[in-house]
Write a structure and sequence with these properties.
Elements lengths: L1 H5 L4 H13 L2 H54 L4
Helix pairs in contact: 2-3
Amino acid sequence: LSLAAAAFFPNMVIKMVQSGEKSGSLPEVLDKTAEYYEEQVDASVTILVSLLEPALIMIFGAIVFVTVLALYLPVIELSNIKD
């Protein structure tokens, strides 16, 4: 099979294509394989987003903190000046 020679596709895909060719139901088998990999990608993206979300919140919080500090620090310094 030329898919195996390419060494790009996982073994499961190669086996599914082989069984689909033998049974004459290649389009259905490819649809099932595509659904499986779509679910895998969706699960991976969900996990990645759930891990990145707290980090992004911390980063944006730090940016807001530095901005507020940069705006109010001169005002506080001016109020501390004694004549």
